[in-house]
Design goal:
Blueprint (H helix, E strand, L loop, with lengths): L7 E5 H4 E5 L8 E2 L5 E4 L14 E3 L11 E4 L7 E3 L5 E2 L3 E6 L5 H10 L1 H5 L12 H5 L2 E5 L2 H40 L12 E3 L7 E3 L3 E4 H4 E6 L12 E5 L4 E2 L2 E2 L5 E4 L15 E4 L9 E3 L8 E2 L3 E6 L6 H9 L2 H7 L1 E3 L2 E3 L2 H5 L2 E4 L2 H40 L12
Parallel strand pairs: 4-8, 15-21
Antiparallel strand pairs: 1-10, 2-9, 3-5, 4-5, 6-7, 6-9, 11-12, 13-25, 14-22, 15-18, 16-17, 19-20, 19-22, 23-24
Length: about 425
């Protein structure tokens, strides 16, 4: 526990917050209907601040309210998000709500600051987990003055607001690219398409396609379709190379939250370092299998975990940008191909190589590539800006929440 400063007090979590541990609704009430209640099952749906909705529930047992804090109570314990909607939660999450002045933003930053301390409270044999009594009795230090708490929350939340605005811009760019892809390569409404003859592709999955287009397998249009080599993990970080594991592949992006470290690769395996625009597919572990992502923002040297497959196309045959959206559209197909092996669900590399793709005329590919790369560069710049904002915010959290930086005389709205 930290040293108590003047005008600060030690409290237990039950004194300042209400906690609800959840009982899961029956699986028969899980739906894909957006008219039902949003349903969060685990922290795999968590993002930087707000969770992403992927499922719904038609008959929830209980509801978490908008602006409740959501916390993972099963490994990884202590993952935190803020719910920006009323929602239903599965039993691996709990909701936390401040008892005073709707002060959930301050409580969120308080819990984030105390994460190292909180992690010492883990218990459980097979799965790391935490129970309600442990949560209720967590000891924390807070400013006695509610206005001080609100000032701290106001300063820090401005960073999160900027990050969220950037995320909205990123989402618009992503949706724009997705829309262009579907219009050109799914509906075949690309420039000059009115003059194109349609022919039989010879493949039931694609039917009629524009003349000059063809169907090929992934391995026929790729320079590399591979899994990464076995790795030697190290504790001595002076020799380390960061490793992206399957938990980092989320929401079609790479999130550097749970990286490991390994020895650098031998020269003959140097092609296995991450490159810009690499397409990544999670190929093991039930909870994250088949997730597809691509590298837009990482330009440092990284190794990818050997539970992840990667694809690099032959750009003379199929542009990496076009390949990504085709692979992304195959996620349900990858799920159907997965098999059980030693208690883990796996996706065989041979199955990825045998996936059929449509190969458009190179002229239309080049047009798409020219448009998309510019948008990808915008996304890259926004993500870099977000990273800088996160780093600044995370430096401020301990200094503000601990009272090291005094906000009493600041005019903060």
């Amino acid at each position: 526990m930290q040293e108590i400063k003047k005008w600060w007090k030690k409290v237990k979590l039950w004194e300042i917050a209400d906690i609800i541990m959840w009982q899961s609704p029956k699986s028969e009430f899980y739906t894909e209907n957006s008219g039902d209640i949003p349903f969060f099952q685990w922290c795999t749906e968590f993002q930087e601040l707000y969770p992403i909705v992927s499922k719904y529930c038609s008959k929830p047992t209980k509801l978490a309210k908008k602006w409740d804090i959501l916390m993972s109570v099963r490994a990884p314990v202590w993952a935190l998000n803020l719910s920006n909607i009323d929602c239903c939660i599965w039993r691996w999450l709990c909701s936390i709500n401040s008892k005073f002045h709707k002060n959930n933003w301050f409580l969120l930053y308080l819990l984030k600051w105390n994460l190292d301390y909180l992690k010492t409270q883990w218990w459980g044999a097979v799965y790391d987990s935490i129970n309600k009594d442990t949560l209720l009795n967590l000891e924390l230090l807070i400013p006695e003055n509610i206005q001080t708490q609100q000032k701290i929350a106001s300063i820090l939340s401005k960073y999160d607001d900027l990050i969220e605005n950037n995320n909205k811009r990123i989402k618009i760019l992503e949706e724009t690219v997705q829309s262009i892809y579907e219009e050109w390569f799914v509906k075949y409404n690309f420039p000059w398409s009115e003059n194109i003859k349609m022919i039989d592709s010879g493949n039931d999955d694609f039917g009629m396609i524009p003349e000059g287009w063809e169907v090929r397998k992934v391995e026929e249009i790729s320079l590399i379709v591979s899994k990464w080599p076995s790795l030697n993990y190290v504790d001595d970080k002076s020799q380390w190379i960061p490793v992206i594991n399957q938990k980092c592949i989320r929401n079609w992006e790479i999130e550097l939250n749970t990286i490991q470290f390994a020895e650098k690769l031998k020269d003959d395996k140097s092609y296995c370092y991450l490159e810009k625009y690499d397409i990544l597919i999670n190929s093991m572990w039930t909870w994250t299998l088949w997730r597809v992502s691509r590298n837009l923002t990482i330009d440092e040297k990284y190794i990818i975990h050997n539970c992840i497959s990667f694809i690099r196309s032959n750009q003379n045959k199929l542009k990496q940008t076009v390949l990504y959206y085709q692979i992304k559209s195959k996620e349900n197909h990858f799920i159907s191909l997965s098999t059980w092996s030693t208690w883990q669900t796996t996706l065989n590399i041979k199955e990825i190589k045998n996936v059929n793709l449509i190969i458009p005329d190179i002229k239309i590919q080049n047009n798409f590539d020219n448009i998309v790369i510019k948008m990808f560069d915008e996304i890259w710049a926004l993500k870099k800006q977000n990273q800088n904002l996160k780093e600044t915010r995370d430096l401020l959290i301990p200094r503000l929440v601990s009272g090291e930086l005094d906000v009493e005389n600041l005019d903060v709205k």
